[in-house]
Specification:
alpha/beta; Rossmann fold; 7-stranded mixed beta sheet; binds guanosine-5',3'-tetraphosphate; Conserved Hypothetical Protein Ylqf, Chain: A, domain 2; single chain; elongated; two-stranded antiparallel ribbon
């Protein structure tokens, strides 16, 4: 299967972002902690040049904490502070306040020397679709004021939202696009549900996911679905597993035929919701 992405208003969105970047001190880049490589566009390094930087490894509640720790180290080696986050959890502003103060220490000290106290740090949230930008903004400001949904290229007048952390957030997040250097990036985005399933063949995507899980998270599927699993020399292990999942869930068609499509969709849904446990798809 060919994983593709239709970036739409990419150029327009970059231009808008370049304009907005002039106004800010800090770029808060949100990535998905399960796939920090595939869910970020490294162009942000160029776009955010000269700004303070913070990477949020979001949806960390769904990722393997040991792997997330490796990612934090990976970004630290590049000179970028990265922190794990669950944007759906309460108290985000409180956790972020000291982290942002640390990242922007230079500016705060510079201000202090000039006699300026508590000038808010102006920050912009950015990231590819579905990483949790709106959830993060809403959680940060403590009420549902930020708009959910993605509208790349839509320019509104910039508005600053005050937070309790001496930070002002630009109300519209900068929308980046994933970088498709190879098919793996597309596949990983599809695993976590960041590609439109309607343009994908669900059975094939689930087979790719099962192949990954059987290698990197062996036993999880068998445990969750109470299935016996397949032997290593099975000719079509993914198909055999999908059939077992269908039977164990009672997804049957006429004549006791397993409903493979339904089993595939269920497997994807269960993985995306973290029901097999906290699994990271990518390691640094
Ligand atoms: P975006 O602005 O970057 O496009 O992302 P958005 O905030 O719309 O979030 C995309 C989905 O990810 C939402 O789920 C949201 O609830 C979920 N999400 C965001 N942050 C986290 C997190 O830290 N952990 C977990 N587990 N989920 C997170 P949805 O199913 O599209 O919406 P809803 O059913 O939650 O309302």
């Amino acid at each position: 299967m060919n994983y593709q992405w239709y970036p739409g208003h990419m150029t327009k969105s970059v231009r808008a972002m370049q304009e907005q970047l002039k106004l800010i001190d800090l770029v808060i880049e949100i990535v998905d902690a399960r796939i920090p490589f595939s869910s970020r566009n490294p162009d942000i390094d160029k776009l955010g040049n000269g700004k303070f930087r913070l990477v949020i490894l979001n949806k960390a509640d769904l990722a393997d904490p040991n792997v997330t720790a490796l990612w934090k180290q990976h970004f630290a080696e590049k000179g970028i502070k990265a922190v794990e986050c669950n944007a759906k959890a309460p108290g985000l502003a409180k956790t972020m306040k000291p982290i942002i103060a640390e990242v922007c220490r230079e500016k705060i000290e510079r201000d202090k020397k000039r006699g300026i106290l508590n000038r808010p740090i102006r920050a912009m949230i950015c990231g590819i679709p579905n990483v949790g930008k709106s959830t993060y903004i809403n959680s940060f400001i403590g009420k549902a004021a930020a708009k959910t949904g993605n509208k790349p290229g839509v320019t509104r007048s910039n508005q600053w939202i005050r937070t309790g952390a001496n930070v002002e957030l630009l109300d519209t997040p900068g929308i980046l696009w994933p970088r498709f250097e190879d098919q793996t990036v597309g596949m990983h985005l599809a695993f976590i549900g960041s590609m439109n399933d309607q343009i994908l063949i669900v059975e094939e995507l689930a087979a790719d996911l099962i192949r990954f899980l059987e290698t990197d998270a062996a036993g999880k599927l068998e445990e969750y679905y109470h299935i016996e699993g397949v032997s290593a020399d099975s000719e079509h292990p993914e198909a055999a597993l999908l059939e077992q999942i269908a039977r164990s869930r009672g997804f049957l068609k006429k004549g006791d035929e397993p409903d493979i499509e339904k089993a595939a969709a269920q497997t994807l849904e269960d993985f995306r919701a973290g029901r097999f446990g906290r699994i990271s798809v990518e390691r640094p």
